[in-house]
Amino acid sequence: MWKNPYLLLLASTLAASSGVVAGTAAPVPERGSTLSVVYENDTFYNRDSHYTNGVRLSWIPGSAETPQWALDLAGAIPWFPRDGQVLHGYSFGQNMYTPRDITLENPPDGERPYAGWLYGSVGLGVETGLQLDQVVLTVGVVGPASLAEQTQKAVHRLVNSDDPKGWDHQLRNEPGLILAWQRNWRALVDTTLVGNEFDITPHMGATVGNIHTYGNAGLTLRYGDNLPLDYGPPRIQPGLTGTNSFVPRPGIGWYVFAGVEGRAVARNIFLDGNSFHNGYSVEKKHWVGDLQFGAVLVWHNVRLSYTHVIRTREFDTQYESDDFGSLAISLQF
Q: Alpha-carbon distance 71 to 28, whole Å?
């Protein structure tokens, strides 16, 4: 399966183009403002390499607080639905990447370069009840200005872990720009199974920029009771992104989930190296897949999730796939 993620891309694209959607659109409930924090780290699985840490803070104002500029922009994007609820949001985050052995001052050839990514994002979305379209613009910086070296060293001192010694070999400073679009189809399959709710939500999208350029497609399966209105738990890009905003139902809700995504990768600065300077890089793989599974608990205005992610090898000299965990909490006001 993982050797041919383009089959997943093709299958999801065909399903999307056929217009197959379960049910009819229901009124979209008004959403409150949502604060989300996502923390991703490979330490959950006793690793400390490659994509080793990511933190993102997001703020999604309530649907009643959508400003006129967001409404006008949503109306100007030709593929956005015209009859949906418009939401906008802001995020700030930092990612860091390292080779397998951080105790070496001079990592050997073929090892993933040290790199950091400090960024801010503004996003716009329209949901109809059956479909969610999102466009996100991200700007930031790669290199020493990302402060990833200082962050990792400070955290490792705090937890008495190995001192990362190879940051002199990180990518150079470079401003970054990413424009991403994604479409999700709500509950292409929506039924009950052994007394609980079960649904399948496919998605597809595209991302362009000097940091990441790729096409992606996949799907998420949810099974549980009193499911909240969301598209899966939030994740840090690239990956099955889910949604920061959600609509809880009265009482306690829960679900377990599994998702899969394939990506056709044209550009990944953290593997390809800087755009305008020769330096540290590895030969990337053009087909990458993620498998993820986990659980979500929702109580009143709080959603808590944990996700285990398995990512296929991203470059030729990588010995094995990567495992990392993603912990997220969302609070609705």
A: 16
- The per-residue pLDDT for range 68-108, each reduced to its tens digit, is 999 999 999 999 998 899 999 999 999 999 999 999 999 99
Contacts 24+ apart (CB under 8 A), 2-5: 2/289, 2/291, 2/312, 2/321, 4/287, 5/261, 5/262, 5/263, 5/264, 5/287, 5/288, 5/289, 5/312
18-28: pLDDT as tens digits? 333 444 555 67
Measured CA to CA, the distance from residue 24 to residue 260 in angstroms comes to 26
Contact between 123 and 115 under an 8 Å Cβ cutoff? The reply is no
3-state secondary structure of 80: coil
| Res 6 pLDDT > 60 | no
How deeply is 43 buried, as exposed, middle or buried, from its count of CB atoms within 10 A (0-12, 13-18, 19+)? middle
Residue 243 predicted with pLDDT over 70: yes
Domain architecture of the chain: domains with CATH? 5-332 (2.40.128.140)
Buried b (16+ CB within 10 A) or exposed e, 169-208: bbbbebebebebbbbbbbbbebeeeeeebbbbbbbbbebb
H-run or E-run covering 108: none
